[in-house]
Every structure is written in C-alpha cells, then in structure tokens.
Hints:
This protein is an alpha/beta fold.
Amino acid sequence: MVAGDWPTALAPMQDVTGLPFMKVVARRGSPDFFFTEFIRVHAHSRVDPEILSSITENPGGRPVFAQLIGENLEDLRRVAREVNAQPIAGIDLNLGCPAPRVYRKNVGGGLLREPDKIRRILDVLSEEATSLLSVKMRIGFEDDGFFGDILEIIEESAVGLVSVHARTVKGGYEAAPSYPHVARAVENLSCPVLLNGSVDTCRDALRLREKTGAHGVMVGRSAIRNPWIFRQIREMQSGSPVFRPKMGDLFRYFEDLFNALAKPGISEKGHVGRMKKFLNFVGLSVDAGGEFLYAMRRSRTRDELFLVCERFMILEGREQMDFPLEPFEGLASRKGKPVLERGRA
Ligand SMILES: Cc1cc2nc3c(=O)[nH]c(=O)nc-3n(C[C@H](O)[C@H](O)[C@H](O)COP(=O)(O)O)c2cc1C
C-alpha cells in the first residue's frame, strides 16, 4: 500500500475465497487484506486444513484475517488459540451470515438479535487476541433496531477493524444497500471501518468511500466477476490510467482459475460445476443478452465449457474487445437501488 492510499479487502466468501482464488486474484493485483472463508466453531471443531492453507501459504505476504463463526464462548476461545498460532493479521468475527441453517443456531447474522451475547463473545476474543480483533457485520437482523447498541459494544471493546455489509440479514444479497449505516458506523467508532456491499466498480469504490468516510472498501462478488478490481481501485486512487481488461484477458483468467481449482480426486463433473459457480458472476459482464450464462450453465464437460468460453471471449475477434467494467443491467437481479443519502435509509 502506498502512503496516503486507503486499503482494499477481498470479502470472505465460502467455497470461493480459498487459497486458489486468492492466488488467482493476487496475480491480477492484490487487495491489501484477505479474509478466510468462515471457520465453523462448535464443540470439537477443528480448523479445516484447506482454510488453514490460505493463511500459511498466503500469496504475496498480504495479511489474512481468520474469520470465525460460532457462539459458544469456550469453543471460540479454543479455536482463537488455535488460529493465533498461525501467521494471521487478526481474528474476524462473522456477524452476518444470512443462511437460515446458520442464523437459526444463533451464529453469524443470528447474533445481531442478541447484542449482549456479542459483548460476551468480544470479551472472550479480546482476552485471547494476540493480533487485531475484527468484526464483519450486517446492519441488523430484520431491521436496524440494535445497530446503535452493537456499535456501542464494539466501541467499548478491543475491536480494531469493522467491516460493515450495508444490508440486514433479511435483506440477503440483493436488497438495496444502505450506505448511510456505514457513515453512522464511521461516526460512532474510533477504529477503521471498511465499507462492503455492492461495490461493483473502481468508480463505486471511490465514490462510496468518499460519501461515507469509510477507511477502505471490501469487495466480494465483483472481484469474482472482475479480478482486476483491486488494481483498478489503486490506479484510480493515484490518478493513473485504469487498466481495461480485454475479453482475451478474461479468457486467461478463466483458464488460470480452472487450473488453480484442479485438485487430486476432483471429478470432471465436480470441477466443471465448481467453475460454473464462479462463471455465474463473470457472465454478468460478458454479453447483455445473457447468452453466455445460458450456454455456460448447460455445459457438462471440460471441453464443452472451454468451447463456450472460447466462443464468447476469444473467437471472431472478441479477444481484443473490452471487458465491461460494470455488470449488465438486468442480468443480476437487483431488487432496489442503493440508498445514498442519509435519512432515506
Ligand atoms: C458465495 C458467497 C459466500 C460468502 N461467504 C461469506 C463468509 O464465509 N463470511 C462472510 O462474512 N461473508 C460471506 N459472504 C458475504 C460477503 O463477504 C459480502 O459481505 C457480500 O457478498 C456483500 O459484498 P459484495 O456485494 O461485494 O459481494 C459470502 C457471499 C457470497 C456471495
């Protein structure tokens, strides 16, 4: 990070932000921080070796936060000690996962209904902390009723970094993000705040950071679609020309990812299926009509998948065409427009 610049982070995404994806992104311009996928914490849970490798073999020496999801104080203490033995930048507590099977156990986003429990968990984690303690939170469960209380608890705790995903748990991934809540977190907390939620382009990153006063931005899905986004943000910060990938670059990203995700024992069907999860995001910027998405989702073998990608990304002169910075309107379901002004949240 250059002095004066503000930081970027790759958002934690289960089944996505493992070591292979971190490496593929880092080759195109690394974010300043990584977060692991969530590490489940319950009785007798152990840290998954694959998740551990994203800390120990972290690309480019960038700091990695180990994200924990759980609620039992003694289990959290035990796993915190276990991850503290690793070269982590800090421990991050998940206060946002919206999956019903998760929040019903009162972990992840479910904890946002119980501010006192959050206080007790943060007390335990700060007792164990040997590095930065961080929280990744949504603005509430059903509504923002406890948002102020939770900010107060965080402010009174030893938390040193907060990432705010500007939606409620019930808002899932598509509700309009409420950025004024990020501004409120910035006003009420003395630690740095990362803004998260539908930062789709480098322009969004600069505009929203300025609007909210956030310290930096965290990008999730758009980094799958456009892995150059962290490089582009840095270039835009410094006023340099912003890298514009061509469709040929996109094809090479696809190939790189395909190779990175190969692992012993994975079947062709499993490998192709895994790639489709990533290409579902990439496809939002390939063609406005969604034909790539349609064809890609129907391919069953490696050869079929490569053929579809070649057809849309490199054949018939496509290689030299610009890869759009933004997703095409209408391909990603967006239930509402982002709330940008205070008082409209
Ligand atoms: C596939 C997927 C998996 C996710 N897994 C996690 C997770 O393990 N931990 C977490 O805190 N958030 C998780 N999230 C939420 C993201 O970190 C992020 O908060 C959310 O996607 C909003 O940011 P975005 O609009 O930039 O994608 C996940 C999101 C997606 C799409």
